[in-house]
Amino acid sequence: MNSRASVPDAREPEALPPPRVALGSQTWREIAYLLTAWMVDLGAFVFVCAWLWVGVLSSFFVFGVPILAGGLAVLREVGGWERARSRALLRMRVDEPSPLRRSRPPGFLPWLWATLKDPVGWRSALLFVVRLPWSLISFVVTLGSLFVAWPLLPWLARWMTNVDRSLVRALLSPSDELERRVAQLELGRMTVTDTASADLRRIERDLHDGAQARLVALAMELGLAKEKLAEDPEAAARLVEGAHGEVKLALQELRDLARGIHPAVLTDRGLGPALSAVAARAAVPVRVTDDLPARPAPAIEGIAYFTASELLQNVSKHSGARQASVDIWRADKRLMLQVHDDGHGGADPHAGSGLAGLAERLAAVDGLLAVHSPPGGPTTVTAELPWRERTGTREGTRR
């Protein structure tokens, strides 16, 4: 069994770049940054001073607090522009902070309170106040070096912009791991909402085009049979027989639809038996190995079930495999799910396939999807979910 693929941590601090000798394109971008930074900082500094002066003096009146909140909202946006300028000219990685956290119910007062507590706006104000003297000094040094000491300019530009990089990273990047997690959870919440909406539309479409249409046809046939019952009993019997067949088909479609929402075997017996039922319907032989010591929480169990079901559908439709396997186990505080097949490989989660959607849905619950599928095969897809204990006394044990 292949081990879970390692994923690099994109949040590790970025090292400052070393000085350059040549006057290359990056050096000219750094020079442009140094020559324009003082104008940005001066304008922002004037705004901060005027905002604080007016806001503090008027804070004794009703309109003073909204002025402070409005200034912080503006400074949050100005900080975003400065992050964009740093990415474009300094080629540095600056993560976006989390969106403004609004209380519920929405309204002016919740927005006012959330904005006043917003650390992003306050840190942006601090950056432009602290950096103005430095940006003026670096402007004078850069301008003088262009005419007097231009051979030293690559070293000076890199050294001075490294100071700017440190300031931007310290004051405009997300302040802590919690803020990064909030941003990730905001994205995950949108993904879950979109997925739920798509599932509801699919269920509505399946009901309308499938069972509902059959039930309408069944009602019409039974109405005709009722009319013919007295004058032509044989024709009525044929209509009833046809209606009986329609009932069977409608029941089968309703069972399939219910299985797609949440299968009864998953609720009653757990993940292993439910995946065995899915494997029995697969187009290729599938071996299921269940090494879970207990049942996880229903939400995690359901996500793991539908993930494995979709992966097995991919195996049946696209892999050309002769056999496959599904393994589920617990590793520390994670639920591990691995689907392996001996098909032709080449599965790419970045090519707009269903694997990309699976990865997004798993990420919404702090999960992970790793795909190893070289051309020629085999393919191993590993899903990792957080382990959450099932609440209750009897449901925490295996059935």
Characterise the protein shown here.
It is built from 11 helices and 5 strands, in the order H-H-H-H-H-H-H-H-H-E-H-E-E-H-E-E. It is α+β, with helices and mostly antiparallel strands and 399 residues long. The chain folds into 3 domains: 25-175, no CATH class; 186-261, Single alpha-helices involved in coiled-coils or other helix-helix interfaces, CATH 1.20.5; 266-386, Heat Shock Protein 90. Strands 1-2-3-5-4 form a 5-stranded mixed β-sheet. Strand 2 (324-331) and strand 3 form a beta hairpin. It is elongated, with a radius of gyration of 31 Å. Mean pLDDT is 78; it is low at 1-12 and 393-399.
What keyword list fits this structure?
399 residues; disordered N terminus; five-stranded mixed β-sheet; Single alpha-helices involved in coiled-coils or other helix-helix interfaces; disordered C terminus; 3 domains
- The separation of the N and C termini measures 26 Å
Classification by helices and strands? alpha+beta
Poorly predicted residue ranges:
1-12, 393-399
User: Which geometry do the CA atoms define?
Assistant: elongated
Radius of gyration: 31 Å
Strand order of the largest sheet: 1-2-3-5-4
Q: Count the strands?
A: 5
pLDDT averaged over residues: 78
Helix-strand string: HHHHHHHHHEHEEHEE
Biggest pleated sheet? 5 strands, mixed
Number of DSSP helical runs: 11
- Strand fraction equals 5-15%
Number of domains: 3
